[in-house]
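G., before I forget:
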Amino acid sequence: MITNHASESSSGAPSRPRSADDLVWRALSDPSRRLILDRLRERPHTTGELCRYFESTRFAVMKHLKLLEAAGLVLVERRGRERFNHINPVPIQEIYRRWIRPFEALPADRLLRIKRLAEAREEKE
Amino acid sequence: MITNHASESSSGAPSRPRSADDLVWRALSDPSRRLILDRLRERPHTTGELCRYFESTRFAVMKHLKLLEAAGLVLVERRGRERFNHINPVPIQEIYRRWIRPFEALPADRLLRIKRLAEAREEKE
DNA sequence: CAGATATGTGACCATTTGGTCACATGATAA
DNA sequence: TTATCATGTGACCAAATGGTCACATATCTG
């Protein structure tokens, strides 16, 4: 009976260095961080301003900003004691170009099959 | 001294029901799952076939597939004892249309500022 | 039917993650 | 210059996450 067990000794996630792309995906995966980016899309905000949009504390927002900055999605402009957070659209565009756009080109026959599968699934509910 | 503490009693994430969009973002945030989708983009694969691309065990791959299915990114076609996993491009396209595309339209003056900030940051490294 | 194949489930575990706070520092305004 | 404001850091905590395995079921194939 084959059950596909691990051959190497390993347990849990080995915490790899994380690629640049992965940092971006990871940063985008959290709804609070996406909300921050939504605000920054309108105009730059200081950290304090951003905090007003959230239930959680300033510290949580700062952690989010740190992740967003590490991913290159947010650029920081220090002015006096204030920190202005600007959005950087480039990483998002890269993600789109390199990973999302290729998914738009599927042959018509496959799309038809997919559509049928989706309909079959909906009927089951 | 203002430090912005929590007003309501709360600790840790309250585990909300997660919106449909969030399921998709969450599913896309893991590199193994993106790799699965890369394979499925070429052609449908059975679960066993997919396992060959990964170091981790079949169980991990199955968990990933379950998440991808819950997010609507993978549609399952059962054929005998085999399970064919098909990619569904629709959720990705929705994410793009509703969230990513809007980031492409930033006014030129803001883009220029952002470019300068990015350059200043590069020099610091 | 009997064994091999392909997938599914629940329990369990270590790490990561998102969150809190006490405490600290640098800039501003009265 | 002194109190206030805006931001930063490290420690800590509970929950989510990604992973493993023992065990189970259903489907071929000889």
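Chain B touches chain A through 47 residues (CB under 8 Å). Strands of chain B lie at 45-46, 74-79, 82-87.

More on Monday.
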